[in-house]
Amino acid sequence: MARNEQLIRQHKLLQLLEDSRFGRTLDELRGDLILDLGLSTLHTRTVRRDVEALQGAGYDIQNEVLERGRIYRLGRNHTAVHEIAFSATELIALSIGRELLYPLMGTQYWQGIETFWNKVQEAIPEGVYEHYQRYRKVLYVSGTPSKTYEAQSGMLKTINRAILEHRVVEIKYKPIGREASVRQIEPYGLAVHQNSIYVVAAAPEVTDESERLRNWKLDRFTQATVLDDYFKPDPKINLNEFLGKSIGIFSGDSSTPVKIRLGNRSASYLREDPWHPEQKLEPVDADDPASDTILTVPASHPRELLPKVLALGSDAEVLEPAEYRQAVADVIEKLAQTYNG
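The line above is the sequence of Helix-turn-helix, type 11 domain protein; the predicted structure tokens follow.
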């Protein structure tokens, strides 16, 4: 834990020095670290050792004595240590990626994106930037999210710290249509899915290993507090595998293959815009060009498929499993009652 705590402190130190135009004293840095990281105690000697460690790693941290004491600031050569040359094509790719990350606006991650973007703009040659501006006039990114997580930035910092330190977090969580409840979770990571941020965390009270790891939507957090309790991460957990098992964000130890009959039009859509990398499209009759197609796609919950299947209208029919077929049928029946009066 000590190693992780040191890395967190040093990263925050760099952020504080990057944001400080006139530098900080060790006492000021110590106070900021205690406030931002929620520490109970921190000795000035520890801050000095962290500064020296960063200097030893190659960061140009300078100091001088002023009326308010010895101050520390990042030197002018700091950016040169990591100087990178950008082409116009790379700049375009970076700007598109930045726009796709708008859900992070207002968070510590967005602050890093913006400061990096500003540094890139200042460092690149004028001719390269002019070429970039001309090209971006013909390339647009649409469908970007209409929400941000600025209001949850404090909770994100808390959860990020808990992930790095393997600490239990007490949360107040309010699912849609239900009362808020206080839970304890063991956070493993964060996931961005369709413009929303989810906390991938284990529920300690769940004994079934296949059900312990879940995705908790950050929008439904009303409070998050890091506890003094630590947890031992499960070495068998692989977040890339866990998040890649299904077409949506619903969690589960294993996914279920769902078979859907598609008409030609819908099958063409699914070839253009696949729902999942492992989906399969097979014609019912390979000798008939007008034949329907069977889509097989992994899913972890019927609710993941509902909006996608309903969007295809009568051109899609869920065949199996029965649970998924019935879930769609129930919704269609209720819609029919609503529209038929």
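Note on the example: The CA atoms of residues 185 and 203 lie 5 Å apart. DSSP finds 13 helices and twelve strands in the chain.
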